Amino acid sequence: MKKLIFLQSLIFTSLIVATPAFAQATDVVKVQNFITNVIQVLVVLAGTLASAFFVWGGVRYITSSGNPETLEGAKKTIIYSAIGLTISLAAFVITNIVTQLAQSAFGS
Description:
Layout: H1 2-18, H2 31-62, H3 68-106
């Protein structure tokens, strides 16, 4: 059990430490740029988390050994993570559309 917790902590830490790679030198002169950057980072984190839960649901589904309760829980995990991934992708697309519309309406 301690090895599992250590492994999960290691994976979680590696995901968090890898996040600053998205931090690019940008001009935070406009509020629009700042809000867009924050939303895009949050969407990437949400997508990563949803993907991790999707994999976790798949592992639970495979290792359920025919137990109906575990099987049902794994199915729900997969469905909810797919919904979360869809929502995060939709948020990314909507953010980009709103940014493009704002830039064309108010100038760049």
